[in-house]
Structure formats: C-alpha cells, structure tokens
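hey so u asked for the seq, here:
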Amino acid sequence: MNEISAQSESLWGISIAKSNISLFGYNWQGKLDQGCQTSEEAIRFAERSGDIYSKSIAYSCYGWSCFYRGRLEEAERYLTKACGYFEKIDIFSFWALAKLCLGLVHFESGDFQRSIDSHQESISLFRSANIFPSFINFNEAAIMRGKIMNGERDVDFDELPKYEARNRFRIYEVWIPALIAEVLLTLGDVESSQAERWITKALEADRRNGMQWNLGKDHLLYAHLCKCQDRREKEKEHLSAGLRLFEECGAEGDAARTKEALSLLSC
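ran it, structure tokens below
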C-alpha cells in the first residue's frame, strides 16, 4: 500500500511540474509544439495518479496549449473541464488563469460578451485570493477591448496608458500595448500615430522578451493598420513575417488564417 501511495505522489508531482513547464516555459516563449506535448504528458501522469489537484491544473494548462495552437473549441472544452474541478478544490491562482484564458478564447472566437464575462470572473477570483494585481490589470484592459469590439464607445482614453503603467509582470509588457493598439484601431485611429506607436512598442517588447507567438500576432496587428491605410506592400510584409513566425512556433490556427489573408491580398 505504501509503495502504491508513493507512486501516486510521484505521478502527481511529475504532472504538476510538466503543467507549469508547458505554460510558463514553452508556451509563453512561443515553443508551442513542446508546450502542447508537455501538457499532454501532464494529463497522462495526472490521470494515472487519480489526483484531482494535478488533473485540474493539467487540463487547464492543456487548454492554454490549445489556445496558443488555435484549437479554440478544444481549448474551451479543457478549460471548462478544469474550472469544474477548481470549483471543488479552490485553487484560485490556476482557476483565475483558466478564466483569463477562456476570455481570450471567446474573444478569438468572436463571442465578445462571453469574453468580457470570463475576464470579470477571473478578476473576482484573483481578488478573492488577493494575488497578482498585474493579472487583474490585464483582465481590465481585455474587458475594455471586449466592450469596444461589442459596440460600446464610452471609453476613457486617459485610462489606456494607465494599464501599461500599472503592469509589473513581464508577459503583460507584451500583451497590454497590443490591446491598446487594437482598441485604437477599432475606434478608427488609423491616420494618427497613436495606434502605430503602441504596435511598435508591443513588437519591441515581443523581441526583448523572446515571445515569438506574440511577435507574430503583433505583425498581424501592424498588417491590419497598413490595410486600413492602403499600404498594401507593407501589409504583405507584416503578414509574411507573421506567417513565418506562426509556422516556426506551431501556431497552426493563426498560420492558416494568415495564409488565407495573404492569398486574398494576392488576388
């Protein structure tokens, strides 16, 4: 019996380690093939152990892997499954992260109200545990983006740079400028330098922090700006740069969509 218990604890520990490596190591750096493989391994070890704690975290981190790869339906399924476990055992940090990722998944799927709701739920969880104010700040910025995409136009522009100023977490040094640029582009700020300035800041942060998937996404954002300004050659240049990065990362969903955009541009 003691040997079985020790084996279960070993499987549990291996799963937790692999889950953390997949999300905070591989995926955030844009090494998506390794991230997906490692999070799949985390699920296998967790399910063999029978431990609910490791299973909840493994399902959540695999959901993140699916999000980065562009498998949005699968991402939603695993993140929702993880949240069902988190409700029983109150792991607030990973629960809040799962809700944050669900907000991103719903946004990419075009369901902006569900995106807003998920980010609000993530904020509540982070606040309940009194942890990670920079993650709360990112959720608030994402909620503003969701509201703009949902047709709301009552935006306090003075608040936009404050999201960046309040951030103390490296990954959001990359994400927040891109969110601000996307808000400005959605509101039609294509002739001024503001949107371009924020996109440039995001690209610089991507390169500085070695976050290849985000770099690809921000090239797409720049391509969108160029399209609005009728700069077709620059649009093609940024789409091509984004496609190259997505293919290197293993971001199959973004790669497919970018190929389609390039094909339409060539017509």
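Confidence is low (pLDDT under 50) at residues 1-6. Residues 2-29 form the longest helix (28 residues).
lmk if thats what u needed
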